[in-house]
């Protein structure tokens, strides 16, 4: 048993690495036998390493609790730092074998997703991969899906693109949104029928608004549909108080969270289409495409 009154000769010296490995293994398993199995040494060797560490630190790290070991107060204070240090070393060693994240990455995505999600958050990806030269094309046209100059497409559609690898990014729900200022307007919207008093902002067609209104059992007559060209323009017009837009649950996440838009009714309908990740088969295993895919999937889950 180390003498608690005796202090180590120098606090700047690191304890023996093998002894720290033995301590970490014992702390995780709380038995010498299992720690020895993990380290592929004998139990007596593990016990010896533990005694060496306790002698070097001049503290007791474990006490026996019935048939198992238990960390002492000193052991509990030491273990988180030792565990974290070994995890950091393991992570750094694993990254040495990763392909270098350098080169060009060209991504094509719909205008709404490009402006309301990627433009607001792409810095996260660029900071994680500083050697990547990134280019974004704001488009939902199929020509980019079949272009050799584009590495990855995010597409809003049916999910069918021949001779391409397709992966679901997310389904979305549709619901009315407007500026908070519109709520305080003299013509404030208290029920669905009062949407007749405001322009209903939509993309080039009004099919999604029609689906939402029909689902709410509201006659379609007298509603004023205003085609705005694309989802981003419709959302931006709604933010500016120009009317009511049918919000896409992915695209309006930031605007709702930050108070630029408010949701009018609980009722929602599933969008006819969904968002997909589409790429050539030969680029699907590219480290850059895989890294961006992992990032955008995490970002979309965050919006959800």
Task: Describe the structure concisely.
The protein has 304 residues and is of the alpha/beta class. It has helices at 17-29, 32-39, 43-57, 73-95, 111-128, 142-145, 180-183, 207-215, 231-239, 253-257, 287-303; strands at residues 62-65, 68-71, 103-109, 132-138, 152-157, 165-170, 173-178, 200-202, 225-227, 244-248, 262-263, 269-270, 274-279.
Task: Give a verbal description of the structure.
The chain has 304 residues and is an alpha/beta fold. 41% of the residues lie in helices and 20% in strands. The chain is built from eleven helices and 13 strands. The protein has helices spanning 17-29, 32-39, 43-57, 73-95, 111-128, 142-145, 180-183, 207-215, 231-239, 253-257, 287-303; strands spanning 62-65, 68-71, 103-109, 132-138, 152-157, 165-170, 173-178, 200-202, 225-227, 244-248, 262-263, 269-270, 274-279. The strands form three sheets. Strands 7, 8, 9, 10, 11 and 12 form a six-stranded mixed sheet that branches. β1 (62-65) and β2 (68-71) form a beta hairpin. α1 crosses α2 and α2 (32-39) crosses α3 (43-57). The protein is elongated and about 85 Å long. It starts with 16 loop residues before the first helix and ends with a helix. The mean pLDDT is 86.
Rounded average pLDDT: 86
In what range is the share of β-strand residues? 15-25%
Based on secondary structure, the structural category is alpha/beta
Topology as a string of helices (H) and strands (E): HHHEEHEHEHEEEHEHEHEHEEEH
Uncertain residue ranges: none
Largest sheet: 6 strands, mixed
What's the β-strand tally? 13
Count of separate DSSP helical elements? 11
Q: Determine the oligomeric state from the structure.
A: single chain
Query: Mind telling me the C-alpha Rg?
Result: 29 Å
Query: Roughly how much helix do the residues carry, as a percent range?
Result: 40-55%
- Tertiary shape: elongated
Compute the separation of the termini in Å: 55 Å
């Amino acid at each position: 048993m180390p003498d608690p009154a005796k202090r180590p000769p120098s606090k700047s010296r690191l304890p023996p690495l093998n002894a720290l490995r033995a301590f970490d293994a014992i702390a995780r398993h709380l038995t010498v036998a299992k720690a020895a199995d993990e380290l592929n040494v004998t139990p007596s060797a593990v016990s010896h390493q533990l005694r060496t560490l306790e002698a070097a630190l001049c503290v007791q790290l474990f006490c026996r609790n019935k048939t198992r070991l238990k960390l002492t107060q000193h052991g509990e204070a030491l273990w988180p730092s030792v565990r974290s240090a070994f995890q950091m070393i393991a992570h750094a060693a694993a990254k040495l074998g990763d392909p270098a994240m350098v080169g060009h990455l060209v991504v094509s995505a719909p205008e709404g997703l490009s402006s309301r999600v990627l433009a607001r958050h792409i810095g996260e990806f660029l900071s994680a991969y500083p050697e990547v030269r990134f280019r974004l094309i704001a488009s939902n046209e199929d020509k980019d899906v079949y272009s050799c100059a584009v590495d990855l497409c995010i597409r809003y559609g049916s999910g069918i693109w021949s001779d391409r690898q397709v992966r679901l990014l997310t389904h979305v729900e549709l619901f009315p949104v407007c500026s908070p200022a519109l709520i305080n307007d003299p013509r404030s919207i208290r029920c669905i029928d009062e949407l007749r008093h405001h322009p209903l902002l939509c993309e080039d067609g009004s099919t999604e608004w029609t689906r939402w209104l029909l689902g709410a059992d509201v006659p379609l007559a007298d509603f004023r549909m205003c085609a705005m060209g694309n989802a981003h323009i419709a959302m931006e017009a709604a933010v500016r108080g120009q009317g009511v837009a049918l919000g896409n649950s992915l695209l309006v996440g930031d605007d709702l969270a930050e108070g630029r838009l408010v949701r009018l009714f609980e009722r929602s309908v599933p969008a006819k289409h969904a968002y997909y990740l589409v790429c050539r088969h030969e680029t699907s295993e590219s480290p850059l495409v895989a890294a961006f895919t992992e990032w955008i999937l995490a970002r979309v889950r965050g919006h959800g």
